[in-house]
Amino acid sequence: MKTLMELNFREKIWCQLFKIKFFREKVFYKLSRYKKKLQTLDKLNLNPKSVVLDIGGNNGVVSKYIYDKYRCNIEIYEPNPYCVLILKEIFFYYPKVKVYEAAISNKKSVKKLYYHKLETNLKNMSLSESSTLESIKSNISKKKFKKVKTENIKSILNKYKKINFLKIDIEGHEYKILPEIIKNLKKIDIIFCEMHGSKHRKEFQNQYKLWKKKIKKIQNKKFFEW
């Protein structure tokens, strides 16, 4: 496939192995960096008709785990062009999974996507999880970035009458989209959100504390810190 040819050798091997169910279940899903989080997805009330929105799809491990377990409809938003290649390779034969190359923000525009300070050629899957729109993030370099398209979270949510599961992992930028998500809680069954500033990334600590209080006030067993 064209996408596979554009990947580095390491990611080519990763994709080929990851597409094999045996390796996913016996190796990748059991890696310490994924295992605990993936186990939290086991009790979701999803089925083949469910709609899942994955904001910050990265390398597709979470979405693939959900698909393997529930066979539901999944829409993935990911701004890192290299990760998009990986996602399209993994989900090429999955019509129920759609991949969009875009970041989700509080407005439609073009923003800088900053990369990890150790990144050399902007094509490193192992460092891709650090990519962010937030220039204050301590492990990125302001000199290493790509300009990416952003979509307005309001417009995205307006596309759906019902979202059965929403997963958010966008490296500190979650605080820009949470206001609109809170406004739309009625159409979302459950939300898992990685909130930076709790135990790591002190640069987001003030935003974390502020939103922790706000979410506690409206807590209705829909929103979970991931």
SSE pattern: HHHHEHEHEEEEHEHEHE
Number of contiguous helices: 9
Q: How many structural domains in the coordinates?
A: 1
Compute the gyration radius: what is it? Answer: 17 Å
Q: What strand line-up does the widest sheet have?
A: 3-2-1-7-8-9
Per DSSP E runs of 2 or more residues, the count of β-strands stands at 9
Per DSSP, what share of the residues sits in E-state strands of 2 or more residues?
15-25%
Oligomeric state as shown: single chain
Uncertain segments: none
Helix and strand composition category: alpha/beta
Could you tell me the mean pLDDT? 95
Helix content: 25-40%
CATH architectural category: 3-Layer(aba) Sandwich
The CA-CA distance between the termini, in Å, is 34 Å
- Tell me, briefly, the overall form: globular
At the first level of CATH, the class is Alpha Beta
CATH fold call: Rossmann fold
Biggest sheet architecture: 6 strands, parallel
Could you please describe the fold and organization of this structure?
The chain has one domain: Rossmann fold (3-Layer(aba) Sandwich), CATH 3.40.50. The chain starts with a helix and ends with a strand. Helices cover 34% and strands 22% of the residues. The protein is built from 9 helices and 9 strands. The strands form 2 sheets. It has a 6-stranded parallel beta sheet. The protein has a 3-stranded mixed beta sheet with strand order 4-6-5. The model has no long low-confidence stretch (mean pLDDT 95). The chain is α/β, with parallel strands linked by helices and 226 residues long.
Describe this structure in a few short sentences.
34% of the residues lie in helices and 22% in strands. With 226 residues, the chain is α/β, with parallel strands linked by helices. β2 (73-78), α6 (81-90) and β3 (97-101) form a beta-alpha-beta unit.
